[in-house]
Amino acid sequence: MFGIPYIISAVTSPFLGLMIDKIGRRAQLICLSSVLLIIAFTSSLLMPECHQCYNEIYPLVLTGIGYSIYASAIWGSIPYVVSPNSVGTAFGMATAIQNIGLVIAPTLVGMIKDSTKTVDHGYFWVNAFFIGVNIVGLILNMTLYHIDITQNGGILNNVD
């Protein structure tokens, strides 16, 4: 079941990218993706424990949609905010930062899960961690949106 977000992302990201190319609104969609992820992890956190039922599918689907929107909007934003001669460097930096997060986050999640096994087998606090990360992300995304509107003339909302 934990492959569901990645399957959804693989299927929907090209279509979301096309939609974003047509409507713009990158900064707003990045904020929306954070809200969807907060809702997904909160619903997973609040969901009663259930053996041999599939109610976790709904938060996983929502996670896949949120991730797809985020990935489609954020990667497409890079060429809008850096000079043309530094786009490759910007993509390289973004990839490096993403990979740093992909090294640190699973380690933290494992530590949280192992140290909180007695509460919902550790998943309660893992979900709380992801909610916290996404709240911080939402605040940063709203800051990005504000900076884009006030200092860049809303370039991330443009359609080329």
Q: What do we call the CATH homologous superfamily?
A: MFS general substrate transporter like domains
Number of strands: 0
**Helix segment count?**
5
SS-derived structural category: mainly alpha
Order of helices and strands: HHHHH
Major β-sheet, in short?
Answer: none
Q: Categorize the overall geometry.
A: elongated
Stretches where pLDDT is under 50 for at least 5 consecutive residues are none
Mean pLDDT comes to: 91
Number of domains: 1
Gross CATH architecture: Up-down Bundle
Question: What is the CATH first-level class name?
Answer: Mainly Alpha
The percentage helix is: over 70%
Query: CATH topology, which one?
Result: Growth Hormone, Chain: A
What is the radius of gyration computed over CA atoms, rounded to a whole number of angstroms? 17 Å
Q: Report, as a whole number of angstroms, the end-to-end distance.
A: 38 Å
Strand content: under 5%
In short:
The protein is mainly α and 160 residues long.
Structure description:
The protein has 160 residues and is mainly α. It has one domain: Up-down Bundle (Growth Hormone, Chain: A). It has helices spanning 4-23, 26-46, 57-81, 87-115, 123-151. It starts with a helix and ends in a 9-residue tail after the last helix.
Write out key terms for the chains shown:
160 residues; mainly alpha; Growth Hormone, Chain: A; 5 helices
